[in-house]
UniProtKB/TrEMBL annotation:
GO terms for molecular function: SNAP receptor activity. GO terms for cellular component: endoplasmic reticulum membrane; SNARE complex. Residues 132-141 have a biased composition (Low complexity). It is a single-pass type IV membrane protein. GO terms for biological process: protein transport; retrograde vesicle-mediated transport, Golgi to endoplasmic reticulum. InterPro entries: Vesicle_transport_protein_Use1. Residues 194-257 form a coiled coil. The keyword GTP-binding does not apply. This is Uncharacterized protein. It is found in: Endoplasmic reticulum membrane. Residues 112-142, 154-175 are annotated as: Disordered.
Length: 289
């Protein structure tokens, strides 16, 4: 079966190859490649012709694979040279009428330059009010003075008295900016986002609960509808079975009645025929006698 299919396909390929080469020669000879139609440009015609030439070469390879005749081989060589000549002509025309490849404009120059967000300097903390000359001294200064006086009393003969340590001024800390990160802006901007996400979560939860309730109601409705349909189908099936039994009984009864009626009909007809024959015979007997 496969051998017959292959032989039939080979015969079809031979016929198609001859017809295709003939059509290609006619097309290449009669086609006006110079005219450029808006509906079908010349370069589309050349591409179609090249595809047909490629298909013709494939058919030629298929038929040459199973060919053993020398005359057929020479004929196929002639077809191959014809295809080469037509392909050269079409390729030359395709190079001439092929549309020029235009590169699209780059998108990168059209994109806006990203603007870097400037870092806001930290706000300086308010400096404390300077102390008045007549004001009270700080507790740290009092403690240092007390320690100095005690040392002077104990070590009065020392030529090099201990120099008191400088008391750090409260205003020196305000001269340097604070390097701690400022989370106030971030927390202030994150609070509305958290509120929005919480509201969205609640809304989605409410929608999911509503959809769950709706699905439950749909399930109950469909189950009740299926139960009703099942009961209706069972009742219909029971009625059909009853009708089938009744029809079967009626059919048997009609068959018996038909056989009886035909027997009665033939008896009546024979009785009529016998009576008619008897009447005729009686009439002739009376006439003859």
């Amino acid at each position: 079966m496969s051998f017959s299919n292959n032989a039939e396909q080979l015969q079809h390929d031979r016929v198609n190859l001859q017809q295709l080469v003939r059509r290609l020669e006619k097309t290449v000879a009669s086609e006006d490649w110079a005219t450029d139609d808006a509906a079908r440009p010349a370069w589309i015609k050349t591409r179609v012709a090249l595809q047909k030439l490629k298909y013709a070469r494939r058919l030629l390879r298929n038929v040459e694979l199973y060919e053993v005749d020398a005359e057929a081989t020479s004929r196929y060589e002639l077809l191959r040279s014809t295809l080469d000549r037509l392909e050269n002509v079409v390729l030359e025309v395709d190079k001439r009428v092929a549309p020029k490849v235009v590169r699209p404009e780059p998108i990168l120059p059209t994109l806006p330059v990203p603007i870097s967000r400037a870092v806001e300097p930290p706000a300086p903390s308010p400096a404390p009010a300077p102390e008045s000359p007549g004001g009270a001294a700080s507790p740290a200064a009092d403690e240092s003075l007390a320690s100095i006086s005690a040392q002077d009393l104990l070590l009065g003969s020392d030529p090099s008295p201990t120099r008191p340590a400088p008391v750090p001024s409260a205003s020196s800390s305000t001269l340097l900016p604070s390097t701690l990160p400022k989370f106030a802006d971030k927390s202030a901007s994150a609070a509305p986002a958290l509120q929005n996400s919480a509201a969205l979560h609640e809304e989605l939860s409410a929608q999911l609960a509503q959809m769950t309730a709706q699905l439950k109601r749909n399930t109950l409705h469909f189950s009740s509808a299926l139960e009703n349909d099942k009961a209706f189908l069972e009742g219909t099936q029971e009625k059909l079975e009853k009708n089938y039994d009744v029809m079967t009984k009626e059919r048997v009864r009609l068959r018996d009645h038909r056989s009886k009626s035909w027997g009665t009909t033939w008896i009546v007809m024979l009785s009529v025929i016998v009576a008619a024959v008897g009447f005729v015979l009686t009439f002739f007997v009376i006439r003859l006698t």
